Amino acid sequence: HFGFEVPCVVPSRSLGHALAPVIDLPVEIVKQSHHLTNCPNFLSHFFVSLGLDLLQYFAKAVVWGWVQRYIEKKFSTDTSKSYTVAPWLNWPALGLFWAKLSVMLVAYVLLFLFVLTRIDFGEGNPEYETLYHNSVIDHKARIHVSTFDSNNGAVTNKENCANAEDLLQMQQGTKIRFWCEAGRYKK
């Protein structure tokens, strides 16, 4: 069993309402007003990296545009000549390049950790509850009915599963047994 959950979907209610028409967010998600308090802010690192990338190209264009114009005015437009310029003219672009790579590396590490903490590799999460039932033919069967994995925690999930178990078990003519177990579905 392999599962993936993302508990912090929308950073804020206002942003959710702004993005809802664009990315087709369900109204329920927007109304929950999730915040990214428990999530690493890897997106900001990606945006900072893009900003540094833009600054790198801007700095390089400004510096080398200025150098080219200076050489044209001072020496002429003879393209057969070769000119030597100071190596420090590359330092702003090189600094921004390495800063961009560093921030991008941090962003990918945070993204990897975020994804890794959200993957359920089958051991189950004790906050989840799963409802099962057996079969009229095979009383040892484990048939999955539902998994309760709300963001409200273990107590709510356990209560909801128990309520569903009671309601299903109390139906007239029920010949199968319903029960809840902690964690996600297991065969």
Describe the 3D structure.
Helix 3 runs antiparallel to helix 4. This protein is mostly helical. The longest helix has 33 residues. The N terminus is likely disordered. Strands 4-3-5 form a three-stranded antiparallel β-sheet, with helices on one face. The protein is rod-shaped and about 100 Å long.
Describe the structure in brief.
This protein has 187 residues and is mainly α. It has five helices and five strands.
**How many helices in DSSP terms?**
5
N to C succession of SSEs? EHHHHEEEHE
Q: Write down the Rg.
A: 29 Å
- Read across the widest sheet, the strand sequence of neighbours is 4-3-5
**Bulk shape:** rod-shaped
Query: How confident overall, as mean pLDDT?
Result: 77
Q: Measure the end-to-end span.
A: 9 Å
Contiguous runs where pLDDT drops below 50 for at least 5 residues: 1-38
Strand content: 5-15%
The secondary structure category is mainly alpha
Helix content range of the residues, please? 40-55%
Q: Outline the biggest β-sheet.
A: 3 strands, antiparallel
Total E-strand runs:
5
Q: What kind of assembly state do the chains in view correspond to? A: single chain
Topology overview:
Blueprint (H helix, E strand, L loop, with lengths): L2 E2 L8 H11 L3 H6 L9 H33 L16 H28 E2 L8 E5 L9 E6 L5 H16 L8 E5 L5
Antiparallel strand pairs: 1-2, 3-4, 3-5
Helix pairs in contact: 3-4
Overview features:
187 residues; mainly alpha; 3-stranded antiparallel beta sheet; two-stranded antiparallel sheet; rod-shaped; disordered N terminus
